[in-house]
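Posting for a labmate who doesn't have an account.
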Amino acid sequence: MQNTWCKECNRIIKDSDKCTICGGVLQADVPTEVHWCVDCKVPLIVSVNEKEKKCTLCSKETKYLCKDLRPVFPEERLLIEVLLNIPFEWQGKSVWANNSRYYVDGKAFNVSLQRYRNADINKAIEGIATHSQNNSCKSFEEYKGKFIEANQDRLRLVTTEAMDFVVKEAAEYRPEQRIISFSGGKDSTAVADVVIKALRDPSIRHVFGDTTLEMPHTYEYKDRYRKDNPKAIFKTAKNREQDFYKVCEDIGPPARMMRWCCTMFKTGPITRTLNAAFRKEKVLTFYGIRKNESAARSKYNRIDDESNKVKIQKQAVASPIFFWSDLEIWLYILGEQVDFNDAYRLGFDRVGCWNCPNNTLRAQFLAKIYMPEESKKWRDYLISFAKSVGKPDPEEYVDGGWWKARQGGNGVAASEDIILRQTNCTTEENAKIYNLNKPLSDAFYNLLNPFGKVSKELGRKMINEVIVLDLSSNIPIISVMPFEQQGYDYPVKIKTMNAKHADLHRMIGYQVKKHNACRLCLKCESICNDNAITMTGTTYTIDDKKCTRCKKCVSAQYLDGGCLMNKFLRTVKGKP
């Protein structure tokens, strides 16, 4: 059955004739495709359901080109020409692209990944420097104008629909509760413009997540955007306590399935910024999420406010451009004359972290051209990491992209920290001996706050026992005391009382992992709705007065294994 969506709930509904939320009639999620006019030499965005697919400029029949497309700016065109040793051969032509496939006056031309891999970087840099002065934008501007004119109806359609969505979703929130998530990429750029115009509010709050790994062009564009939008409230969320390379040296580089950097350097800092501004108040954040970006995002809803689906608990997430294609994004930006990140002119098709493990080989090639020093530093680090974990051919491991496929902490010393060492106590029922990798202290007792009230006064002084009381009944449920266990570094005996012992010990085990493995990744801060969890310096603190004992921070639903480091540091047999 074709995917459908409910316009009332703004959610994708699968395998149903009616909305399972409100019971309303569903609309087909109709995809678009790109057609080409041979005479006008421009792409047209058409619905797959349209029977007649004629050019809106010359009324002639068009032909199918591809599912999606992006413009190739003169800077990227010149680079590809230099790479192919054909400078200016495409200069007077209409050039577009989809990934590594280029369309020159409608004819497809593939640039193989092998060509990017084997390219002489220095020669390419020299070629760009030699020819850039004579690189004309005239034909690009001509075809850009035709493209906008040919797709005017589509531009009006998607713009009107997106603005209606924004107005409807924003109606439930006060102006100060509305936020634009601004990344400096084309999608968030389009969203920002749509939202500001729809709400007629140039002073709306923007939050920019500075991962410290943004491209130089992103920082330049961010500064330009702030200058051009002086009334906007613009907040930068940044983790100022962690250094990316130092964290890499400790736990290894991020990988496709282990992107700890997103939490530590993006989601976590943004949560802190929102908490500081809104405390417990709910906010609506407009994001540039599009379902066509990836298989994972195709499963998202256009509006999400369920706590188990959003990364930041404080916010509801709304996506005005959820159904837009790449080419529709560019149609809006170019048609509305919106300024954008110059990295796109160079050929980058995404402008997130420049060294992201999800980046393509083509993106890595572009980074070497336009960010040579940063690229060398990153490659040197990756090679040193490969050597440290015993890879037989470190350079092949790095250049072949195998580092991106890491799925555990194999070879990383820090992987020992997430191994939960425990044994049953032979003298007391429902008691376990846990191994800590640092001395028992107030820092560990603080981690027990989600279970109840931690009381040193009620414990037996002779054995340094600490008791945790259930808040509702004031009955002891946990007993903690130092212990001696052969082979354990800092053993502690923890006994559960008057409770579901297996469930409680599982959650206690999560906190033991946090005590041993915490790298202040900020994930727990993002989970907590009550601003009770803070991480400063080297300290993880749960405020006893703010904590409502919701237990999200000790729930596998939000933290598989109890600690985010469990995912990144556990060893996996047979994996790189």
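Reply:
Got it, the structure tokens are right above this. The two ends are 39 Å apart (CA to CA).
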